[in-house]
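User: Quick sanity check before I run a bigger batch. Here is a single chain. Can you write out its predicted 3D structure?
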Amino acid sequence: MHVSDKLVKTLETKVNDLIELSTELKLENQALKKRLADLQHEKRDLLERHRRAGDYIDRSINRLNSLESSQ
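Assistant: Done. Predicted structure follows.
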């Protein structure tokens, strides 16, 4: 095998390794994007639940204050 043949083989191996790595990174990136979307959705849900809980507490305090002032 000539030196140029060895170089070509080495380059082929490196290119194939890069293609494989690129595929793995693409899959990982897709998984991370999905996880990010899921977490963003969960955050929106939690913020909405937090807002509703705060509203409920405010209404409860107002009712208690109304009851207290009517006595």
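The first helix runs from residue 3 to 70.

User: Great, the batch can go ahead then.
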